[in-house]
Amino acid sequence: MRNWLVSFLLLLIGRRRPKPLGDADRVVPPGAEEPRAELAAIVLLALSSLCAIAFVVFYALDRLPNQTQLMGGAIGMCLIFIAAALTVTAKKLVVNEEIEDDYPVDEHPDEQEAIVQVVEESGSRLTRRRLFKLSLGAAGGALGLAAITPIASLGPVFDMKPFYDTEWRRGRRLVDERGKPWRADDIEANDFYTAFPEGGEMEALGAPLVVVRLKPDQIESHKAFAADGIVAFSKICTHAGCAISLYRAPLFQPDEPKPALVCPCHYSTFDPANGGAVTFGPAGRKLPMLPLRIDRQGYLRAAGNFDGPVGPSWWGVRMKKPNPPA
Amino acid sequence: MIKTIVRKLDQRSGTAPIVRKTLRYLFPDHWSFLLGEVALYAFVILVVTGTYLAFFYQDSTTVVTYHGPYLPLRGQPMTEAYRSVLNISTTVKAGLLIRQTHHWAADIFLAAIVLHLFRIFFTGAYRKPRELTYWIGVTMLFMALLEGYLGYSLADDLLSGMGLAIGNGVALSIPFFGANLASLIWGGPFPGQHEFFARMYIVHVFLLPALIGTLLAVHLALVALKHHTQFRRTRKQTERKLVGVPTFPGQTPRSLALFFGTAGLLFLLGGLVQINPIWLWGPYHTYLSTNGAQPDWYLGWLIGGLRLMPGFDVTIGHYTLVPNPFWGGVLFPMIVMFFLYLWPVMERKATGDYAYHNLLERPRDAPWRTAIGLGFISWVFLIFVAGSSDRVDVLFNLSYQAQIHVYWVLVWVVPIVVGAIAYRVCKELQEGERVERKREHAEHAAKAEA
Amino acid sequence: MRTLAFTVLAALVLAGSAGAGNVQRGQRLFGQFCASCHAEGQTTIGAGPGREMRQQTAKAPSLRGVGAMAADFYLSTGYMPLRKLGLQPRRSRPVLSTGEISDLVAYVASLGKGPAIPRPQPERGNIAEGFHLFGDHCAGCHQIVAEGGYVTGGLPPPLEDATSLQIAEAVRIGPWVMPTFSKKAISDRQLDSIIAYVNYAKHPDDRGGWAIGHLGPIPEGLVTWFIAAALLVAFCMLLGKRLKSS
Questions:
Q1: Distance (Å, whole) CA A84 – CA A82
Q2: Contacts from B30-34 at CB under 8 Å and sequence distance 24+?
Q3: Contact B72 C131 (CB under 8 A)
Q4: Ramachandran area for residue C153 (φ above 0: left; ψ -120 to 50: alpha; else beta)
Q5: Which of A59, A148, B245, C233 is deepest in the core (most CB within 10 A)?
Q6: CA A288 to CA A236: how far, in whole Å?
Q7: Cβ–Cβ gap C205/B115 under 8 Å
Q8: CA C16 from chain center: how many Å?
Q9: DSSP class per residue in B135-189
Q10: Is B252 on the interface with C (CB under 8 A)?
Q11: What is the ipTM of this complex?
Q12: Based on the domain organization, do B84 and B149 belong to the same domain?
């Protein structure tokens, strides 16, 4: 036991340095001793070890409040203490040499020539070099193209039909998120509702609708699409595809701007009274509108498909009308 | 003991000459040379923490019902992907710490690359013979950007899901083949096939890290082979003579300190400052969105580009040639890419300087480069800032619509003004130094005569 | 027996109305603070307490039939009296005391039958359901953690200062450009859940540490550059060494 204690004390106090080499033989020049800096570095490393232990303790404890903060603080400080010790080492405990050296040569003309020579002389058995090189190039290129081709399996590349599909067709009922059908008198003025096609895939871009009720005399165009003042639009913004989840519903119109559907991503603003026309923002295409009708039981149904494909614009978005799904 | 190790290693690998050369390889003395290292160390932390996260993440889009400990989401439907990230954040011990460290590391990785790029650009370090090194660096920048975007999109939370929808919209906006490309990547129209998340995952954890790692190795090898550039601080430093600090013992503790310091800062942030709290955002659905959604900072320049455009699609009859997101989401970054890649070539052609350069210039020594560089940066920066003008409206009550109109003007005027001012400042500083040198000469001459 | 019952009834009525405001006092306050805009048949709007003289272009709605709920909401939030006409009302310190507000509420309620002050019970609500409903109906404007946001033409406010009662009132009124959610659209029980969620969102689970505003990437980017990058650059400057001979 005493031996362990003595050894530990000796470790702390330090031993005499070994005899230095003769100065003429040194590669790295000698430098002054800095015992205070040395002690600082040792203390910092000791603190670092304590922090590492703390990290393990924090990790092991269950139901420790703010555990993430404690663990992060512990391991972070462990690393920072090591960094501090190394900084002290860099500044005070290693010799700061300033050495000159040559930059490597700019190029190696002899080797370059030798390489070119080897390559050129190797082709001495070929009679039709250009044609041979061309054939190699053609084969390589063709192989490359062939190798890339299976990437096309990742998705339909030329079949654009899915871009025109929506989940709506004539007669399909509008339902809410839980599948409960919307009645026309559920739709009140000054509010906005999200509707889905009954039995359809909710996450498809062509599925969600945003439905609002306007006063019939507020509707300025696309009047045939409305049912008793209720109008429905694709909920997917025609700019870049976010869901349009803002409805500007003025309480007192003289002071406040007109009703509008707004997208929170880049603030494209659409006018529900005008068939979803763009009134502000970067969208380049009006919001697709779904014609509605009210059936005999009072439920809202689609009276057809959207007046244009849904989602952001692409090269063919104005070329066809949307498909009813197969 | 060191003797034994060195001997055994050399006997088995023959690498003693290389190791000796490496130990005495010279590093220049300026602090700005350490910025690239910060990026490197952030990358190391990314790989380490990312590997750990990959042990817990599930790339599946199968919908499940949540029954875990986070109460506001109890009973809600979500993908397995989102649930696995929730699990990492709430249940796996140290999971949240490592996840947040990983995300902070990504943000800081890109910040360090950008700062490093600024140093390289404004000192002319990309000139012959280092163009290849520079081009590899620029490539890594854009790869890192994509890597980060894919990384935070893997969580399938409301914010990143909206970001993916927008990414899809931007892809669609490419003329002629945008929709085909988007259909290829997603497996059809958005939200795409179930495999899409598996694709993102493989690219994020394997393809891009392997590519970045390889390019990084080549980048560092090229730096070492041609040696670092240097500022001309002393008479001794010339185009042929390098003066610096050897790797060992001088540079090693400094680089190691920087590594541990970077790592320590990242873990401190990871534990103390919340980042991307996906449990607060909730899972993504195509029919949901939230106000104030933004991409991570390194993609903020693009949202500015998207928001600033006035609303029009370019059409020819029924053919939609250029959908709106193209300008801000595709053309804008392509211009930046072209500028960065082609700059060394353009500068060479314009100045007629085809010489080798090992010495760096200070920004003032190249007024045109500094002016054009700062002008270009201010152009990108203004568009970047425009992307947050809605929050500026919320904070300072400055009309969003008015801000957009003001930015339409500022974005073109300010870069020219900044460039002009920068040019003047460089010229004035140079003139000042010239006058100072003349004065010193005259004093010297006067003293000699006296 | 009948006198006893009558006395008890009278006492109850008096007790009830003693808590409620005084209509006559309310009428006087109305004349002082509100009539310059909201008087019936008002065509021009003059200067008023705390209001700039020049703005006379906007109109003010009639308060007939708006009910106690609207009056209580606009007054307790400080939305009214409006400082700048034609602009969105903003939350501010109410210029009136609680007693004066009850008086005004009683007076406005007497101007025609309108909705009474609701009685939300968020403790009966379910936070998970509230989060779900908030995401459906509210997050688009108010942001998913109720930190507020922007819509073209309005600034949906952050909700950290909104009381449970004010949230219930706002949902039913739909002030400025906010949609109006009736009981059919959001039932009272669902509203309780939404309020429970909003109250949670005031101090949500921030197990990751300093929440930096619950806004996501913008504050994260600020931390990246102004804290992390700044510290790292400073550290690089500390580590970089100057050559002896320079």
A1: 5
A2: B30/B230, B30/B231, B30/C240, B31/C236, B31/C237, B31/C238, B31/C239, B31/C240, B32/B119, B32/B123, B32/C236, B32/C240, B33/B119, B33/B228, B33/C240, B34/B254, B34/B255, B34/B258, B34/C236, B34/C239, B34/C240
A3: yes
A4: left
A5: B245
A6: 9
A7: no
A8: 27
A9: HHHHHHHHHHHHHHHHHHHTT-BHHHHHHHHHHHHHHHTSTTTHHHHHHHHHTSS
A10: no
A11: 0.94
A12: yes
Q: State which of B353, B382, B411 marks the end of a domain.
A: B353
Q: Above 60 in pLDDT, residue A326?
A: no
Partners of residue C177 in chain A, C-beta under 8 Å: 248-251, 256-257
Q: Is B294 on the interface with A (CB under 8 A)?
A: no
Architecture of the domain defined by A163-302:
3-layer Sandwich (2.102)
* Minimal CA separation from C101 to chain B, in Å: 28
> What's the gap between Cα A245 and its chain centre?
21
Q: Is A193 near chain C, with CB under 8 Å?
A: yes
The pLDDT tens digits of the residues spanning B82-123 come to 999 999 999 999 999 999 999 999 999 999 999 999 999 999
Identify the pLDDT of residue A303.
95
pLDDT band of residue C54 (cuts 50, 70, 90) is very low
Picking from A73, A89, A267, the nearest residue to B272 by CB comes out as A73
How do the domains of chain A map onto residue ranges?
A: 33-94, 163-302
Identify which of B441, B414, B419, B417 has the alpha carbon closest to the alpha carbon of residue B368. B419
- Stretch B314-321: mean pLDDT: 96
How would you classify the pairing of strands A230-234 and A260-262? Answer: unpaired
Average pLDDT of span C215-221:
95
Tell me the helix, strand and coil percentages in chain C, rounded to 5. Answer: 50, 0, 50
Distance of CA B84 to the CA centre of its chain: 28
Measured between alpha carbons, how far is C76 from C118 in angstroms, rounded to an integer? 14
**What integer pLDDT is reported at residue A18 of this predicted model?**
56
Plot region of B331 (φ>0 → left; ψ -120 to 50 → alpha; else → beta) = alpha
Amino acid at B115: L
Task: Indicate the number of domains in chain B.
Answer: 2
Residue A186 structure tokens: 């559920």
Does a structural domain hold residue C6? Answer: no
> Which of B111, B138, B122, B141 has the alpha carbon at shortest distance from B35?
B111
Is A99–B288 a contact, with Cβ atoms under 8 angstroms apart?
Answer: no
Per the structure, the count of domains in chain C is 2
Question: Which amino acid, one-letter code, is at B374?
Answer: L
- Residue C56 tokens read as 């006379």
Residues of B with Cβ-Cβ distance to A97 under 8 angstroms: 245-246, 250
* CA A209 remoteness from chain centre: 26
Straight-line distance from the first to the last Cα atom of chain B, in angstroms, rounded to the nearest whole number: 64
Q: Which chains touch C (3 or more CB pairs under 8 A)?
A: A, B
**Domain around B395:** 362-450
Tell me, yes or no, if B75 comes closer than 8 A to chain A by beta carbon: no
**Distance of alpha carbon B310 from alpha carbon B294, whole angstroms:** 20
Q: What is the pLDDT of residue B450?
A: 75
Structure tokens at B89: 């954040």
Per-residue pLDDT at B4: 93
- Structural domain including C22 reads 12-109
Asked if B306 contacts A237 with a C-beta cutoff of 8 angstroms, the reply is: no
Contact check, Cβ <8 Å, B291/C208? no
Three-state SS letters, B66-102: CCCCCHHHCCCEEEHHHHHHHHHHHCCCCHHHHHHHH
- For the segment B29-36, the average pLDDT, to the nearest whole number, is 92
Model confidence pLDDT, tens digit, residues C77-110:
999 888 777 778 889 888 889 999 999 999 999 9
Extract the tokens encoding C4: 């006893």
Residue C214 maps to a domain = no
